[in-house]
Amino acid sequence: DLSAWGKVDASFKSSDLEAISVVPNPYIVDSRYEDSGGGHKLYFTRLPNECTISIYTVTGEFVRKLDYSNPFRGDLFWNLKNSNEQVVAPGLYIYVVEASSGETYTGKFAVVR
Fold first, then answer.
1. Which residues neighbour 73 within 8 Å (Cβ) at sequence distance 6 or greater?
2. Which of 2, 12, 33, 48 is the most exposed place for a label (fewest CB within 10 A)?
3. What angle do CA 24, 65, 23 make, to 5 degrees?
4. Which of 22, 18, 45 minimizes the C-alpha distance to 103?
5. Are residues 86 and 61 in contact, defined by beta-carbon separation less than 8 angstroms?
6. Is 75 helix (H, G, I), strand (E, B) or coil?
7. Tens digits of pLDDT across the chain (113 residues)
8. Phi first, then psi: what are they for 103, rounded to 5°?
């Protein structure tokens, strides 16, 4: 029965946040990962339908806030630029995903030059 195809799954559970990941991790700037010509991109995967991603340096300095809202995809592409549209420096970064329900998930990724 395909009647449920395309319907939004409203049964979000906090354990779903633990499935979130960043690809590739670590992100190696000089790799051939982005040879498709699309520029540098980091992918946040398995996101809840609506959430906010806040990115910080390992020392706690705010880098960027990303808003996400898509009932079907679950992926967000980030161009590795901070809120001033400058490419981020190499290092370890912390991200916090806050779902629309208020639940949060914290993860980390690295950028290597």
1. none
2. 2
3. 10
4. 18
5. no
6. coil
7. 566 565 555 555 555 788 899 999 898 877 555 545 557 789 999 999 899 999 999 999 999 999 999 888 789 999 999 999 999 999 999 999 999 888 999 999 999 98
8. -75, 150
